[in-house]
Design brief:
With 306 residues, this protein is of the alpha+beta class. The strands form 2 sheets. Strands 1, 2, 3, 4, 5, 6 and 7 form a 7-stranded mixed β-sheet that branches. Strands 8-9-10-12-11 form a 5-stranded antiparallel β-sheet, covered by helices on one side. The chain has 2 domains: 146 residues, Trna Endonuclease, Chain: A, domain 1; 139 residues, Yope Regulator, Chain: A, CATH 3.30.1460. It is 41% helix and 31% strand. A hairpin with a 5-residue loop joins strand 6 and strand 7. It is globular. The protein has 9 helices and 12 strands. The longest helix has 36 residues.
Length: 306
């Protein structure tokens, strides 16, 4: 068996400009989710270039179901004193609870500085120092890699404890929504089949391949449901579909969101249903009907090309 060799890709080859390229990329919810997974935080509601006095913080966001403020300072170069100072200014300016400083390489003196900040500030704030790298194997697309250099251990325990309590609302809402959807699927004889309800925010529908499937995602923060073809690997599959974009959208009945996600293995073709919330179940049956209808529409429109 031949194995590929991991190669590091220069960050500037992917994001030529920090403000124009990297910050918008990271502010995209899917990429923010990826960073959040590494840090153990659910980050939402990203805003770019938020004014803090006479300066602008790269990204301002929140912790889901907790509303604590998060500031992200981006530096796709080696860490320096200027950006260290900015993280402190931004944190004080918006009363941040979490500060995330992303750098290409963390210099030892800045690792020590962030460690000192975590040790000498109170438990209401935590500082992360994170390195970002881009890697690829052979001719594959480059993929981002976040490495935590320094994090606030005691602070993370308190944040996760707070989040765990709040997650009950989301988990129960998801379980109930999928349970009700199962009932609708059985009653409507769609032949989609039911699955055991879960606490996850997604529900997948197989299409006969391990490389792609249809999915329904509950996006409570954005107050909508996403129905999509999720292509887990194979840009050639996406490209083949995109060539037939007009015909597929005509068969589907409306325009779709096409996202090739060049920096990731995955890609998707999506549609959205507005009006979803865990706190209001009065329209859930209508949303479930629309979601299943879109799943069937996707299946019909895509079948000739898959």
């Amino acid at each position: 068996m031949r194995l590929g060799k991991i190669e590091e890709v220069a960050l500037r080859h992917i994001w030529a400009n920090e403000a124009r390229d990297f910050t918008p990329w990271l502010a995209d919810q899917e990429n923010l989710d990826y960073l959040g997974e590494i840090l153990g935080l659910s980050l939402v509601e990203a805003e770019q270039e938020v004014s803090v006095g006479s300066f602008s913080a790269d990204i301002h966001c929140k912790i889901e179901n907790d509303n604590r403020t998060v500031i992200i300072e981006n530096q796709i170069e080696d860490s320096n004193h200027d950006h260290l100072g900015k993280t402190i200014v931004y944190a004080s300016g918006v009363d941040a609870s979490v500060v995330i400083w992303i750098v290409k390489n963390a210099r030892p003196e800045h690792v020590s500085a962030v460690e000192w900040l975590n040790e000498h500030t109170d438990s209401d704030i935590g500082f992360f120092l994170v390195e970002i790298h881009a890697i690829k194997i052979g001719e594959s697309q480059p993929a981002p890699q976040f490495n935590i250099v320094m994090q606030p251990n005691e602070y993370m325990k308190s944040v996760k404890s707070s989040i765990d309590k709040e997650l009950t609302r989301s988990q129960l809402g998801r379980y109930e929504f999928w349970s009700q959807m199962n009932t609708y699927i059985e009653e409507s004889n769609t032949k989609l089949g039911v699955r055991k309800p879960s606490y996850d925010h997604w529900r997948d529908f197989k299409l006969g391949s391990s490389k792609y499937h249809l999915t329904v995602n509950l996006l409570d923060v954005e107050r909508k449901i996403r129905v999509a073809l999720w292509i887990s690997e194979g840009k050639d599959i996406f490209d083949k579909l995109y060539v037939n974009k007009d015909a597929i959208e005509l068969a589907y009945g409306s325009e779709l969101e096409w996202d090739r996600k060049d920096l990731q293995k995955a890609a998707w073709v999506a549609d959205y249903i507005p009006g979803f919330s865990y706190d209001d179940q009065t329209n859930w049956r209508q949303l479930q009907e629309k979601a299943i209808a879109k799943v069937l529409d996707f299946h019909r429109a895509l079948k000739p090309y898959l």
